[in-house]
């Protein structure tokens, strides 16, 4: 990311707010500690100097658009992941494309605020440049398209008991905090099955059955809509390797119905797990 | 009493023969209090564990009673409240302070929670004073201190190659006597003439500080402040901050219902969840994010203070470190201070 990116984005945000093109602009601002960032929604052109856009902006901000629906056009910085998240929200009929104004930036990956190591989600990123935008700031960047199925390979090669133990251990640490859901751009249901307490789909006893069930239901429910942003895994306070399940599904869909990239890249579909065709392969039936 | 660091494991092995001992450890990369296993070194260099020790006294889920119907007869079986003695070894001063907060809630003002009380009375708390602090620690702004843990039965202080253990209660004195008897080779007496060490607030301090002066008094006046909307703009209302917090104690009562039998249990709940205030008729007084965010900070910094004269935050910094959205209670406190100052300014101008 270029050194003056912050300034360029501030300038664009100010213009967009001043001209009334957007009603608010979503970006990041510095938090208390050096290299710590927090999402911010700016409403006034006088406030744009709070914005910072650099290699420490670890949160995915696209989903914040949902809470601004109906307020006029929503401006935001769009890296590859934000742009794909917006495509997801559009495909899921949560926003229309005209509701958002994307200031695209090519991204070379974010760094861990505490040690400076590249974030795992960024090391696995397939789309560093926005797939959709209304204007670009700065140059596009190279797309290295790293191999992202290493963990899937490792787990697939395990014996069934070993694999079971791996996932039991993983889910046993789940805090049932739902951070993974709340940050996920594909988790955009107005009310979640996990919150349907009167029905009681999800036991509240924090047991392994509940956390395993939660983890699998979340994964399946977002299976063909996951955009592989890796935000669930980043947000998980307990460090669960949640992308193992998401990547596994993406690769299976690619093999069965491909070519396919997580969540698709536009709202044109296909949504492999939710489309119905009479000439479907259905090998597994 | 002095314990050489290389003998810590032997001491824990010995204590563990008579009762359960919980120590800082790690499971699947998550630091937390785990039952000491013979020969396994505890992670005493970790300052705040990711998961606080709270659940040893107040489990995430706890059965209250079971019920059964048989040929039209209903029978209820009360859950056993008794708890066997156990030791929590290596609690940081902020976590000990959090137990004092939980004690207020579960044992005072005419309410005694039998389940909590049974565990609390069975517990020996062994604190480990901090020689260093993390960037997110701010206990000394919240009435605590890295070097003191007045609520602990025993406090350990790091002396380089060894720890010095001092009893602070009768239970603590009994614990030291038991350690001496169980592991005479792992412990030795203090050097002759060594004075008791009460801790030193000036020696170890937190780099992160907040000014709590007037915060509790200012909070009620900020109930309608737009600041809650601003914070709610960023917060994703997950339950992370409340579940990693050593003092958050809200719970729900739920049930596991099978055909003719079932049980009721209580389980942690979070004020950040939309379901927390969901009412049977469908109304939800805190359906939006902002009132939920406000509730968390009001409870921490105002309501609890009004009832118990202390804040429901001990400055451990866990919620700051783990919030996926970068919401930071110390920035909220700063903001409350600033808003309160502005309000005072306005009053002065108007008056
Ligand atoms: S974010 Fe992690 S700990 Fe929280 S519910 Fe999801 S998997 Fe569990
Ligand atoms: S403050 Fe942070 S950790 Fe707490 S509910 Fe909001 S987003 Fe989750
Ligand atoms: S509110 Fe945050 S800093 Fe305070 S005790 Fe709870 S987790 Fe620790």
Average of per-residue pLDDT values of chain A:
92
Q: Percent of residues of chain A in beta strands?
A: 5-15%
Listing every helix as H and every strand as E from the N terminus to the C terminus, the arrangement of chain B reads EHEEEEEHHEEEHEHHHEEHHH
Low-pLDDT residue spans of chain A: none
- What structural class do you assign from the helix and strand content of chain A? alpha/beta
Q: Write down the oligomeric state.
A: heterodimer
DSSP E strands of chain B, number: 12
Short overview:
Chain A is of the alpha/beta class and about 280 residues long. Chain A contains 9 helices and 5 strands; from the N terminus they run αβββαβαβαααααα. In chain A, helix 5 (about 160-170) packs across helix 7 (about 210-220).
Structural write-up:
The complex is a heterodimer of chains A (285) and B (351). Chain A starts with a helix and ends in a 28-residue tail after the last helix. Chain A folds into two domains: 5-136, no CATH class; 150-270, no CATH class. Chain A has a five-stranded mixed sheet with strand order 2-1-3-4-5, sandwiched between helices. In chain A, 31% of the residues lie in helices and 9% in strands. With 285 residues, chain A is of the alpha/beta class. By secondary structure, chain B is an alpha+beta fold. Chain B folds into two domains: 2-63 and 77-188, no CATH class; 215-343, no CATH class. In chain B, 32% of the residues lie in helices and 21% in strands. Chain B has ten helices and twelve strands. In chain B, the strands form two sheets. An eight-stranded mixed sheet of chain B has the order 3-2-6-7-8-9-1-10. The model of chain B has no long low-confidence stretch (mean pLDDT 95). At the A-B interface, β2, α5 and α6 of A face β11 and β12 of B. The complex binds iron/sulfur cluster (3 copies).
